[in-house]
Amino acid sequence: xxxxxxxxxxxxxxxxxxxxxxxxxxxxxxxxxxxxxxxxxxxxxxxxxxxxxxxxxxxxxxxxxxxxxxxxxxxxxxxxxxxxxxxxxxxxxxxxxxxxxxxxxxxxxxxx
Length: 112
Known about the structure:
The chain is an all-alpha fold. The radius of gyration is 17 Å and the shape is elongated. The chain has one domain (about 1-105). It contains four helices and no strands.
């Protein structure tokens, strides 16, 4: 997960955000599966918070892509104001996710 986070921080793209979220889900699942053998509540909490911090960006991306793909080309001009708002929301949410993930860490002994 740390590698995916670092790649997103170096260049925040939709694909890299998706990679962070996917790595986070897998890591969270692993931590939950081995909780009895190696409890790591603090690390699990950090992984869950990272997922929450990327939710708005992913939601905005999904809404934007759905609308872009479902609007009939002849009616695109009618959807442009909404597309512009969704695009702005996606950019702002990605910026906030980037800012929050810059502070997150998933390696080392700090709190794990």
